[in-house]
Amino acid sequence: MALTAVIRVPSRALLRPWARLRDAALGWIEPAGGGGVEVSAQRFASQKVLVEPDPAAGVAVMKFKNPPVNSLSLELLTELVISLEKLENDKTVRGVVLTSDCPGIFSAGLDLTEMCGRNPAHYAEYWKAVQEMWLRLYLSNLVLVAAINGASPAGGCLIALTCDYRVMADNPKYCIGLNETLLGIVAPFWFKDNLVNTIGHRASERALQLGLLFPPTEALQVGMVDKVVPKDQVQSTALSVLAQWMAIPDHARQLTKNMMRKPTADRLLKQRDADIQNFVSFISRDSIQKSLQMYLEKLKQKKG
Ligand SMILES: CCCCC/C=C\C/C=C\C/C=C/C(=O)SCCNC(=O)CCNC(=O)[C@H](O)C(C)(C)COP(=O)(O)OP(=O)(O)OC[C@H]1O[C@@H](n2cnc3c(N)ncnc32)[C@H](O)[C@@H]1OP(=O)(O)O
């Protein structure tokens, strides 16, 4: 990856402790004596989220890279939020394409191993990170376009739903949807709200109860994605769409986005702790743990 952009990062001594953790996560190194440091955009490429900025165009491409299936581990979620925050603060960037570096998979959704056989404190930490990811993406001031270049179940679909526009590859093997009920679990209310805001109430009711995973043409029909194109055109189409959205003055577009989305985000913001408690007690149930374990086993057996 050839990247040339230069980003100014303040001295670590001036940053809060969490920012030092962030620097470590992103692999930024401050030279001895440090009074601020210039890092090349290559350093911006962390392990599980690659960011390719194009300052001339005012955009960046963010690629998830957590093989084999881009499951949303705690580590990936943390890097995603940090990378997004950095882009939000970068005055040269106004729009971002979200896509995958893993062939054939956009994201397999939440990491089942983070929700199985762990303790309540871990479940709480994990759920807080999932909430944070959703809130940051859903309320982002940037134009976000999803370039869905592979399967996108559950949490993968949620990421796509937070975007302002979704372009999907036309391979009928790639499916997208909130399939939680197939795992014996329930999509949280804010997943549901995001879906209802995208495809409407009746279509959501059907899709959520049946845990429907839509192939691209059906996803287009129901309004879950906005455009279906051949696989090799997904990213270029997403970049063209980004350019169209970026032709609108930022302040007017951002205020409009906020007006449309804030009430939905506020529903979660008003009850974040209660939502974490609900998740922890739900996921800790023996019956739910059994369902998830059986589902994981089925995924593993599929190979053999
Ligand atoms: C009433 C109160 C309610 C409160 C709310 C409570 C609960 C709700 C909580 C959460 C909502 C959940 C959201 C989610 O996102 S759950 C995750 C859902 N995801 C899926 O169902 C996708 C599962 N995966 C697949 O279907 C396939 O893997 C794939 C993505 C289509 C890719 O298929 P492929 O054939 O290419 O790969 P494999 O299937 O062979 O998988 C390779 C490897 O990856 C492992 N794996 C797959 N998905 C996950 C995952 N999500 N998490 C962790 N690991 C995953 C798979 O087991 C294989 O592992 P192996 O060790 O065998 O290599």
From TrEMBL:
<comment type="similarity">
    <text>Belongs to the enoyl-CoA hydratase/isomerase family.</text>
</comment>
<keyword id="KW-0413">Isomerase</keyword>
<comment type="subunit">
    <text>Homotrimer.</text>
</comment>
<dbReference type="GO" id="GO:0005759">
    <property type="term" value="C:mitochondrial matrix"/>
</dbReference>
<comment type="function">
    <text>Key enzyme of fatty acid beta-oxidation. Able to isomerize both 3-cis (3Z) and 3-trans (3E) double bonds into the 2-trans (2E) form in a range of enoyl-CoA species, with a preference for (3Z)-enoyl-CoAs over (3E)-enoyl-CoAs. The catalytic efficiency of this enzyme is not affected by the fatty acyl chain length.</text>
</comment>
<comment type="pathway">
    <text>Lipid metabolism; fatty acid beta-oxidation.</text>
</comment>
<keyword id="KW-0276">Fatty acid metabolism</keyword>
<dbReference type="InterPro" id="IPR029045">
    <property type="entry name" value="ClpP/crotonase-like_dom_sf"/>
</dbReference>
<protein>
    <recommendedName>
        <fullName>Enoyl-CoA delta isomerase 1, mitochondrial</fullName>
        <ecNumber>5.3.3.8</ecNumber>
    </recommendedName>
</protein>
<dbReference type="GO" id="GO:0004165">
    <property type="term" value="F:delta(3)-delta(2)-enoyl-CoA isomerase activity"/>
</dbReference>
<keyword id="KW-0809">Transit peptide</keyword>
<keyword id="KW-0496">Mitochondrion</keyword>
<dbReference type="InterPro" id="IPR001753">
    <property type="entry name" value="Enoyl-CoA_hydra/iso"/>
</dbReference>
<dbReference type="GO" id="GO:0006635">
    <property type="term" value="P:fatty acid beta-oxidation"/>
</dbReference>
<dbReference type="Pfam" id="PF00378">
    <property type="entry name" value="ECH_1"/>
</dbReference>
<keyword id="KW-0443">Lipid metabolism</keyword>
<dbReference type="InterPro" id="IPR018376">
    <property type="entry name" value="Enoyl-CoA_hyd/isom_CS"/>
</dbReference>
<keyword id="KW-0007">Acetylation</keyword>
